[in-house]
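Technical appendix A lists one of the benchmark inputs used to test multi-chain prediction within the project. The record comprises two sequence entries:
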Amino acid sequence: MPEIIKNIDKKSEDRHQKIIVQKYGGTSVGSVEKIKRVARRIVERQKAGNRVVVVVSAMGKTTDDLVDLANRINPNPPSREMDVLLATGEQVSISLLAMAIETIGVPVISLTGAQCGIRTSDVHKRARIDAIDTTRIEKELAAGQIVIVAGFQGINDQRDITTLGRGGSDTSAVAVAAALKADACEIYTDVDGVFNADPRMVPHAKKLNMISYEEVLEMASLGAGVLHPRSVELAEKFDLPLVVRSSYNDNEGTLIVRKNKMEQAIVKGIALDENIAKISIMEVPDKPGIAFRLFSMLAKANIHIDMIVQNTNRANVNDISFTVNADDLQDAVTVAQQFAFEVEAQKVEFDKGVAKLSIIGTGIVGNPDIASRFFETLYKNGVNIRTISTSEIKMSTLIDKEAARDAMVKVHEAFELDR
Amino acid sequence: MPEIIKNIDKKSEDRHQKIIVQKYGGTSVGSVEKIKRVARRIVERQKAGNRVVVVVSAMGKTTDDLVDLANRINPNPPSREMDVLLATGEQVSISLLAMAIETIGVPVISLTGAQCGIRTSDVHKRARIDAIDTTRIEKELAAGQIVIVAGFQGINDQRDITTLGRGGSDTSAVAVAAALKADACEIYTDVDGVFNADPRMVPHAKKLNMISYEEVLEMASLGAGVLHPRSVELAEKFDLPLVVRSSYNDNEGTLIVRKNKMEQAIVKGIALDENIAKISIMEVPDKPGIAFRLFSMLAKANIHIDMIVQNTNRANVNDISFTVNADDLQDAVTVAQQFAFEVEAQKVEFDKGVAKLSIIGTGIVGNPDIASRFFETLYKNGVNIRTISTSEIKMSTLIDKEAARDAMVKVHEAFELDR
C-alpha cells in the first residue's frame, strides 16, 4: 500500500518557476569531491530558472559503518535507538552539501526530516510517510533558497526519529515532490537510467527512454533495483513524472510517466531477483480461512510475501509455499513455525537456492506468443520452472538460482532486447 | 551573564527517588569499550535507587573530525550548517550509549536537544539556553527509563539546530539538572576532581574535596579548565550541588556548593590562562561614554573581554587595553579597528605573548599579606607584572607567557599548596 501524503491544497498561485525535486544517493555524495560536483549540478539547475529541492542519502558506506558500530555495542540494538543513530548519516550529508553550495555563492538551507515536517508511522526502521507539512520548505523556497532535505528519515507523533527502510531516500524524494506539487522528480544514480535488464548481468542490456510506472514497478519489485517500488507507487498515485538519470554525465535518462504510448515492443524489460527464498509449510490441515491466518501473521510481522503456491497432496491437507525477500527469511521462518505449531501442520522447510526471472511489458497477458517464447527459451536451455505467476504486465518464474543468470541472457536475446 | 532556565514550577510532588544528572565528556565515551563501561556505571547509580539522566558529549575527536570535513568543503562554512553537522556527534553518542545500557537489561531512551526541549537563543555555534521544557524527560523518568540527553545542542524558535559552544555539554547538564530540580549534577571527567592548580603544569597540585562556586568559577575562568564557567554560574544560580569526579575510578571527587565553610586556607588554588591575548587601542579621544561604546560593540560581536586597563598618556586622549580569549583575537581586532576608525583613535595593537596567573580563595581581598606574598614571589623570580586585577576572591596578574609556567609552580609553593 503506497504512502498517503496529506497536503493542504493551497490556492493555485501563479508559479513563475518550476519546482524540481532532485535526489542523490549515497554513492553520488560519497566523497568531498563528489559533494562539490553534485553542488555545481544543483546550482546549474537552479540558475536555469527553477526552484530546486534536493533530497540526499548518507555518504557512501556511512549507514553500513554506523550499523557495524551499533552491533559492536549491542548485537540486537533497539530499533528506536538505531533510527536515532542512522539518521545522523543524512544529517551529515545535508549540512556538507549546503556548505558546498554556499561556496558557489547561492543561498541554501539544509533541513532534517523533522524540520521539513515529514511525519511517519511509528514502525521504527521501516516507517511509512503519513504526511508532509511543507510550510517550512515553501517558506525557504519563496526566500530564494535551494533546500536540501535529509532523505530516509522522518518523525512520528511523539517527535521520535524514524527511518523509512530500504529505498527510503527515493520515497522521501517522491513524497516531498508530491507534497510540493513539483513539476518533476529527478532520481540521480550511478547508471544512465532504467535498462531493459540489469547491465551487470546482461551485457547487451539497453537503456529505455520512456517507461510507464506500472512497468518500472514490476522491474523494480522484481529486482532490477534502480528505484524502490514504494517511490514508484507514490509517484504513480500523484501522477508525478519521474526521471532516472546518471549523476556522472548529462545523458537524458529515463522518463517514467503514467501511460506509455509507445507500445511497439510488448516485452519492455527483463528482471531477475536472486535475493529471495522459498518457505514451505507441509501438510496444513485444510480448514476455511487457514491461509488468511498465515498471511495476516506474516503481515503483522511486516514481512512482504511474493509468489504463493498451494498444493493438495492428499485429502484434508495442503502444502503452502511462498517466497519472501531473503533478508526476511529468518523472521518469516519463525512466523511460519509458530503458525505450523498452532494449526498442527507437519513441518516447515525453506530453500535459498531459488531466483525469480520475469519479463515485463504492457500487454503480456493478452499475448500467448509471449508466454510460449518465454517458456520455450527456458526449456531449451534446460531450466526447470518451479512456479509461474502472472499479472497484467509481467510474467514471473521461480527457477534454480544457479541457472538464473544464464537464463536471463538467453531470454533477453529471445525477445530481441539486445538489438 | 548566566543562562536563564524558565521551568514551570510543578506542584511539589513527593519524590521517593533522588534525581541525579550525570555528564560524561567525549573522552569518557571515546570508544566502544569506554561506552560499555560508562553504561555499567550509569546502571549502578540507578540500581542504587536513583532516577538518572545522563548528558553526553560527542565521542572522542568526532567534533574535530567533523570540523575538518566541513573545512575541506568550505573554508568558511555557514554557522547554521556547522551546527547541523556538529549536532550529529552527540546524536551518535546518545544512541550508542542507550544501546549499551539496553544490553544490561535496563529501560533506557535517548533524546536529542530538540526532543528534550532545550530552547536556545539564535546565535549559531555559541547559543545560550533560554528554557528547557522538561515534559518529555519527566515522562520518560516516570516510566522508569534512564534518559540519555545529547549535550552541547538545542533548538531555536524556528526549530533550527543550535550548538552551545565551548563548555556546551557541561552547561547542558547543569541546565537540565536545574530544570528538573535534580538532587545533584555529577560531571565525569578524566581527572579526579578540581585541583588547586593544573596538575599538568604543577606536579604537586592537590585535589580539593570541597570548594565554593565562586572559587571554582575563578579557577575555571582563569584557565584551570575542569568546568566551563557557564555551567558553574548556572549551578550557583540554582543552588545545585555539582560533583566533579573521574569516570575511571570510584574516588570521591570534588563537591562544589554555595558556601565553603572550611576557610583555614585562604588561598585555595592557583590558575594560569595561557590562551589569552591583549589588544590596545592607542590615543582614543577622551569623550564621555566612549569606553562603553567599544565594549558594547564587542558584546554585540559576542566577544567576552576580561582585564581592562585605561592609561592616560596626555590631555584628552587615553590608551585602552583589554584581554580576550586568544580564539577571539581576530574578531576582536576587527571590532577594535572599526571602533578606532569611527572615533578617530590613532591605532590598534595586539600582543599574544601574555598569560594570566591568578590566586583564588575566599578572603583574599581582605588580607594584604596574601597580595604581598604573591607579588614578592613573582618579583623574586624576575617576573614582570603588566597588569593586576582583583575581585572578592581572586587576584590576577598579566605576565609574560614565557615565564608563566615557572611562576605558577613558584607561587604554588609559596602558598604551601603542595603540602
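Residues 18-190 of chain A form a domain with the Carbamate kinase fold (CATH 3.40.1160.10). Chain A touches chain B at residues 32, 35-36, 66, 69-70, 72-74, 77-78, 80-82, 84-85, 87-88, 91-92, 94-96, 98-100, 102-103, 109-110, 112, 114-115, 159-161 (CB under 8 Å). Comparable benchmark entries are summarised in Table A2.
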